[in-house]
Amino acid sequence: MIRLVVIGLLTAALRAGASDFFTEKIEPLLKNRCYECHSHAAGKMKGGLTLDSKSGWEQGGDSGPTLVPGRPEESLLMKVVRWTDDDHQMPPKQPLPADEVALLEQWVATGAPDPRLAVAVEKPGSAEGDWWSLRPLVKPAVPTAAGNPLDGFIQAALTGRGLRPSPPADRRTLIRRVYFDLHGLAPTPEEVEAFVQSEDPQAYEMLVDRLLASPRYGERWARHWLDTIHFADTHGYEHDVFRPNAWRFRDYVIASFNRDTPWDRFIREQVAADVIFPDEPHLAVALGFLGAGNLDISAANTAPMQFEYLDRDDLVTQTMSSFVSTTAHCARCHDHKFDPVSQEDYFALQAVFAGITKGNINYYDDPSTTREQRRLSSVKAAIDAGDTTVLQSPEHEALVASWVQEQETAAPWVTVVPESFVSVQGASLERLSDDSVLSSGQLPDQDTYSITGRTDLQEITGFRIDLMVDDSLPRGGPGRAPNGNVHLSEFEVQVFRPGATMGEKLVLRRAVSDFDQAGGYDVTKTIDGDLKSSWAVNPKEGEPHYAVFELAAPLRLEDGGRLVFLLRQLQGGSHLLGRFRLAATTAPGTSLRALPSGVEMVLAKPAGERSADDRLALATYFLRQRTEAALAALPPPVTVWAAARSATTEDRGLITLAEPRLIRLLKRGDLAKPGAEVSPGALSAVTALPSRFDLPQAKDEAARRAALAHWLADPANPLTWRSIVNRVWHYHFGRGISDTPSDFGRMGGAPSHPEMIDWLAAWFRDDARGSLKALHQLIVTSEAYRQSSAPNPEAAEIDPENRLLWRMNRPRMDADTFRDSVLAASGRLDSAMGGPAVAHFTSRPGPQSTPVLDYDAFDRDSPGASRRSIYRVVWRAIADPFMEALDFPDLGQLSPVRGFSASALQALTLFNNGFVLHYSQHFAARLEKAGSTPEERIRAAFAICYQRPPAPEELAGAVALVDRHGLAAFCRVLFNSNEFLFVD
Amino acid sequence: MHHRSIHSRRHFLGQAGGGMAGLALSHLLARDGFGSMPTPRAELNGGLHHPARVKRIIQLFMNGGVSQMDTFDYKPELARLHGQKIGPKEKPEGQTGASGAVMKSPFEFKQHGQSGRWVSSVFPHQAKWVDEMAFLMAMTTKTSVHGPGSYMMNTGFLLPGFPCMGSWISYGLGSLTDNLPAFVVLPDVRGLPYNQKGNFSSAFLPSRHQGTIINAGSAQPVPDLFADPKHAFTGQEADAASLDLLQAMNRRHAGAHPDDTRLEARMASYELAAKMQLSAPEAFDLTSESAVTRAAYGLDDPVTGDFGRRCLLARRLVERGSRVVQVWSGPQGAVNNWDNHSSILTELPPIAASVDLPIAGLLGDLKSRGLLDDTLVIFTTEFGRTPFEQGSLGRDHNGNSFVTWMVGAGIKAGAAHGRSDDLGFKAAEGITYCYDLHATILHLMGVDHTKLTFRTSGVDRRLTDVHGHVVSEVLA
Questions:
Q1: Residue of A630, A624, A628, A644 lying closest to A363 (CA atoms)
Q2: CA distance A975 to A487
Q3: Are the beta carbons of A884 and B207 separated by less than 8 Å?
Q4: pLDDT digits (tens, 9 = 90+) for B327-379
Q5: What are the tens digits of pLDDT across the range A74-119?
Q6: What is the pLDDT of residue A43?
Q7: Are A973 and B242 in contact (CB under 8 A)?
Q8: What is the pLDDT of residue A222?
Q9: 3-state class (DSSP) for residue A956
Q10: Residues in chain A with pLDDT values less than 50
């Protein structure tokens, strides 16, 4: 029966045309029955499937392909709508009527024609281009003439709603406000009084300038940026390990704010300083930005594919949220549901970061060291490449000539003539005509030779042993081991004065050789006193070698004195000396070198007989030694936790990516479903800029980051400039012009003053040239900022959320400000800047690499304990409970805004935590000195905490508590009070 | 920033002591700071979207990855194939080593109860409760690494920085009492689990929703409940006088700022803190418990003492109005937890014994007190283990299949949903993810998991992300 129906409909369909059939029959059916759970319009893609576009069903869902065109019986769609499979029944609540099932079957049977274009959501280039944040940035006219252009916009918006601004805040309120805003600290009572008393009409502007010039400003505003990019001092995840070098980036951010680095430059430095500013390598510290986030060490080791994928995701999320307020990461599994970010855009961004890995990187903090390091490295490279223009430059020629002369005129080596020579283990030792000694016969596993000899030299500075080749030795020697190698464990010399029966052991302070075996078998092992370590020459057997030893003090050898050499050969395996010769010299000890045999041979020739190659060999040898020594003598580089092509972690060692990893688009974001390769790029929706980077060297990871940095910092990128001015506005007013500082998409907050954000962004880019200090100055000198925060019930009726700024908002201190303010009030704030982070806990080893932290056992008077909060260790997943109580964010994720909460646990923390109580005592001690009566001390406390004198009844209440329970009890109350915590 | 009239609020605060549908004042009060927050509805028995069956939750989290085929997932095929190398040739992502040969369970399995559930000999006490339990036999996850795996089961995301289930419930439903935190975490006294405190984070939810970590071994289990007596200006009398002055000063300040409900909220928070000071010590004091109860939880046995004490605390806390109590078994690390890489035979029995009797004790205690009528107990872990040995007699991480059970209100007693393959290697039928477990738990609490959202950075976040189905097969 069904078949008949199908055939009937099929005929009809053919008549109507496939497209019409879809549009008239199938699309309404899908809309009616399926879109609720499978469409962009509904914001749902259950089972990973969307049906509101052809590409949706073509891609399929989690259960596989939706249908096979032309083959209903093989199509999942038909199976599920027929309800034959217990696990898959669609629609889930009740089956479709038979006629609708038949329509679907017919549609599939006829090849599933679907004329719909791409996805139903708007795409870049269509209406999408008209979204406010993506519009090209054009500076609008200021609506009304006001002193400060910002007030022109704000007052126009207020007037439009029948509102007026509030009157100006009084000076006490204003100075407290602007201090907390720009410094995160209260003004001192003296500063308050001076400002209140000042008759200078420019007093406020001068105050603002002074605040912006203070280093306290950078400390305050760096914290905002570190929140935004989820910077912390540990890895997070399973092994939440400390990053001892992360702090350098924190110091860099503070310094950048203080020196007012232009915003576009700040972007370029953090994303690609190494590429864009190669002549300022100390800026490598800025790459700490790339290392700011979490690192799952455990997954890196056991699940590398997923680890790398999610680690790159973290970088994409951080970069795009922080700089351009775009939630690109929402397009990981599918095209962004709300914003014009395609999945391909997302993976193009992953490709930008596909060549770097998080870890420690080294750089020179001092530019002059860097310059020297670079110069020496380039000289060394030229030497290694045999570049004669460098090797025989006039400067180098002179140096080489002087060295050659020094070698030629140095006192010669004089052979020590062996008088007796004994093998402890019974090998046969024989003196040859050149006064060398040859070993043969017995071949013990280990041995020690004792050689007694004499020399006519009187003031000996050093000794030499030559390991010589001989045809009687395996592979020519110089050793007796089957491969010709030798291990000399210790080289010891004793002097026997004339008539003495006991020898004196001589101190050798330096040993050098012409060649050392790799793996720790260098010649210094012969004078380290360790019988288990030794010098050896593999793989250069079959060649002569020698070592030179410098005496700690010159030896005066009287006539008749004897030298005894103890040559310990304890490695085993018969790694014994085969043929050798001993010598001594009177040349200055420091001049003693062990030259490679080739160089020695050249030097042995008279100068006139040396060929051009000989001279080049001398220059090469000497200049290489000299350059390597100079490189080794440079101050050590410093280390920052960052991300780079080559980086080190304690756990994983040095990781270097030869080239970027191949990035493929992953269907549903699933590693098991790789699609086409994606090349590096950024957002297609920013139409003013190319969205895929045209890089001459496709595999150059640094070029990828540089391209993204330039894309982000481009004057034509409308997101960047709106993003930063809004972010700054957010911190000044407690709420951004758009109240989602890291999302300017359709799910983000629409701007309360759309023209003002554009004006401000364009002004910041063009007029202020990216100067944050200029931006702060403009904002905090506006009337809007300076107005009172007092209530106004009528205005509240019209604009209850104060989006139009008819008054100033009233923030509660954040955790850092609270802690710093308590320290400052108690007179204990340590204003030392920079350096390694201060731990506010004690720690002991945990079961694995994460330690156990104790925030209570911490000594609050230990050095550095009372420094500003920006300098504390932020342990990502073992947070300080005290800071958490005041909403310090979980930096597992980006934190563009701080929260507000009030709870019993917060009250208990502020009332009872050791920090508050400890500093209540310090505050009380400070107040003791500030007055001689309780009243005077309480007045001082009010001035310090509230920037105002107490009212009579306030004074009375405080005195009563102080009398009964002491000054510290009152300090505790002040630190808990709303007036302390809120800033009008 | 918030400008609603406070007059009605004050009026309301004066009357709210009786509690709406058992909802704590603290929750009502806190919602003011934020505008729209979920509101439990009395006519829905305290649910948000439909009537609630469950009001309290005790979650037992076995840290390290419980071996399903050595506990609840009986696989006779393992005995037949024992010693054969039929596992994956390449080391799967997340496993610490390559897969070795199939390894049968060294423990005896028996059927228990009317339902005939198979349980191994490591859980003799839980075995008596199988007819009350509903099992998810084919749970699966997206990773075989502890960190992301623990995040997944607690927050629904592989990445850090998302709120855990307890925080979501605290945010959605609040506490049942003003005297105790809504969401309490009782870590193993030997240490924190993988991810440290990240597993209990409220992340972008207001920080008051994060898990209050109780150190069950400490003299002051609630942090900062009282001042350290070394500070002479504190103590009962000084605290009371200081609080009085503080509130007087705050009232004066609020009078001059009559439009800011945050000021009121902070003032109320100190009143609530004082109430908590009065009642919390009693909640943590186990001395009033009978000898029978102590024995049922195994308090006096060194094997079961720690976990038993924390189970008993969990009962006392939910009984007194905490919403969610999470009890952890096992710290991070190579020993003392469920991450049995070296030897299933020697490593599993001790950790299993440390929880088995206390769990049975807890279930019995909850039942006899009638608490199971509105309490849900959940037993889970971050992933399962391989049916293969790994060059030792232990089993490796396996995110493909593991077991969770639930007992209590709204649960279909004796049910089992889903099935793993014949080796217990991969979930085969009736597959459930953390999303489905979380959706089901929220459902039981009267919450539609798709509607409990929080807007952050432009996204309406959910505990279940864009996933989740209520597992009706295990619901009564």
A1: A644
A2: 73
A3: yes
A4: 999 999 888 999 999 999 999 999 999 999 999 999 999 999 999 999 999 99
A5: 888 888 888 777 667 888 777 888 888 888 888 888 888 877 654 3
A6: 61
A7: yes
A8: 98
A9: helix
A10: 1-16, 118-128
Q: Report phi then psi at A908, rounded to 5.
A: -60, -40
Measured distance CA(B67)–CA(B387) in Å, rounded: 9
Residues of A numbered 924-983 whose beta carbons fall under 8 angstroms of chain B's beta carbons: which are they? 924, 954, 957-958, 960-961, 964-966, 968-970, 972-973, 976-979, 981-982
**SS3 of B397, please?**
strand
Give the pLDDT score at B23: 54
Q: Kindly report, residue by residue over A897-924, the tens digit of the pLDDT.
A: 998 888 888 999 999 999 999 999 999 9
User: What burial class does residue B175 get, using C-beta atoms within 10 Å of its C-beta: 0-12 exposed, 13-18 middle, 19+ buried?
Assistant: buried
Which conformational region is residue A655 in: left (phi greater than 0), alpha (psi within -120 to 50 degrees), or beta?
beta
For the structural domain made of A411-587, what CATH number should be given? 2.60.120
The highest-level CATH class for domain B26-474 is alpha beta
Q: Give the separation between CA A92 and CA A75, rounded to whole angstroms.
A: 18
pLDDT digits (tens, 9 = 90+) for B245-296: 999 999 999 999 988 888 988 998 899 899 889 888 999 999 999 999 999 9
CA-nearest residue of chain A to B184? A905
The nearest CA of chain B is from the CA of A176 a distance in Å of 16
Q: Catalogue the long-range contacts made by A170-175 (C-beta closer than 8 Å, 24 or more residues apart).
A: A170/A788, A171/A195, A171/A196, A172/A196, A172/A947, A172/A948, A173/A788, A173/A789, A173/A984, A174/A204, A174/A786, A175/A207, A175/A947
3-state secondary structure A15-72: HHCHHHHHHHHHHHHHHHHCCCCEECCCCEEHHHCCCCCHHHHHHCECCECCCCCCCH
Shortest CA distance to A822 belongs to which of A705, A740, A941?
A: A941
A805/B contact by beta carbon, under 8 A: no
Residue type, B204: F
| Stretch (H or E) spanning A630 | helix A612-632
> What is residue A12's predicted lDDT score, i.e. its pLDDT?
42
pLDDT, average across residues B154-171: 94
Q: Could you say which of A302, A879, A907 has the minimum Cβ distance to residue B96?
A: A302
pLDDT at residue B25, as a whole number:
60
> Which chain A residues are within 8 Å of B462, Cβ to Cβ?
none
Residue A535 β-bridge partners: A488
- The chain A residue lying nearest B5, using CA atoms, is A793
- As given in the structure block, the two tokens for residue A379 are 């000289």
Nearest by CB to residue B266, choosing from A888, A960, A978, is: A978
CATH 2.60.120 in chain A is located at 411-587
Other C-beta atoms lying within 10 Å of the C-beta of residue A676: 8
* Cβ <8 Å between B1 and A885: no
Q: Kindly give, in sequence order, each residue whose CB lies less than 8 Å from that of residue A790, ignoring residues fewer than 6 positions away.
A: A166, A807
Residue B29 pLDDT level (bands cut at 50, 70, 90): low
Global pTM value: 0.80
The one-letter code for the residue type at A879 is A
Report the pLDDT value the prediction gives residue A52, as an integer from 0 to 100. Answer: 76
The answer to whether the peptide bond before residue A394 is cis (omega within 30 degrees of 0) is no
Strands B56-62 and B375-381: parallel
Residues of A443-467 as b/e, b for ≥16 C-beta within 10 angstroms?
Answer: ebebbbbbbbbebebeebbbbbbbb
ipTM of this predicted structure: 0.84
Domain ranges of chain B: 26-474
Nearest-angstrom CA–CA distance, A648 and A288? 13
Contact between B197 and A877 using a beta-carbon 8 Å cutoff: yes
What percentage of chain B exceeds 90 in pLDDT? 74
Q: What is the pLDDT of residues B301-332, one digit of tens each?
A: 999 999 999 999 999 999 999 999 999 999 99
Amino acid residing at A702: A
Mutation target vs A (from B233, B260, B263, B396; most A CBs, 10 A cutoff):
B233
